[in-house]
């Protein structure tokens, strides 16, 4: 069987569609397509960051939603019940639809507290199977906008207002209804070698002669913090040796400093304690969670509120040290 799609003749069995194409074919929104995939009603697979659906799986979904009976040639009648019975040779089982109780939940962000949150959700909600995506704050928000994340963590510093998260969230999630809840606060600053031999204390010290830094990747909250501080100081990133050398998490940055591969890096205090480098505190950052407000995720939102405010969860976080939980579970911003 062949079909025309986009003006090109293709073999139906090898055709696959993006979520945008599926939404166009079914005349529904892209978010509806993601919801069908999460519920297991449409089988999909991931290629890089993109979800794809084979044409045969799309056909299976469409057939499973059609109403109507079977042809009489395939039907016999029970003498006991007078009900139609399909010939056993023609029987094929209905498609397996993933029950609500096993819906996948994508939690995006890198702090270890999110692993504890995912574990608590898996134990207590009963309605979701949490999956972790270790993606930076800015990229996580973009994934949420694209329908590829359900719970997103952010620590994005806005230099113009001197505040965290809300200016970025408003710009990226425009047109959506959402709630922002504080997860925790933590200290960010510079990793330096033991006893701080290069005497580094401020953002402007990064352009000192003979200083080599190690940076975080584009899209991470730490990279945004550094770029905003450099902008406010009037410092060109090109003046900093090592600015374009990147690592993907706080531990990796702190480890580069500990090994002597770099003199300085930017990150959170927790990683400095774990790796064993000195830490210069520079800012207290607010680490928030973002969720869309929909009728479908009302139970999830209520469950997360309950978990964040519970003594059990807060005691787990406190046991790790290095976090401020004074605002944990507080709504810091909400749209109508």
From TrEMBL:
Instruction: Identify the InterPro entries for this entry.
Output: HTH_17, PBP_domain, SinI_DNA-bd
The record's section on Pfam families has: HTH_17, PBP_like
What GO molecular-function term can you cite, just one? DNA binding
Q: Where is this region: Disordered?
A: 62-94
Bias category Polar residues: which stretches?
Answer: 73-84
Domain PBP, residue spans = 120-304
Give every Helix-turn-helix domain span.
17-64
Q: Which residues cross the membrane?
A: none
Per the record, the coiled-coil ranges are: none
Protein known as: Excisionase
The protein's organism comes out as: Sporosarcina luteola
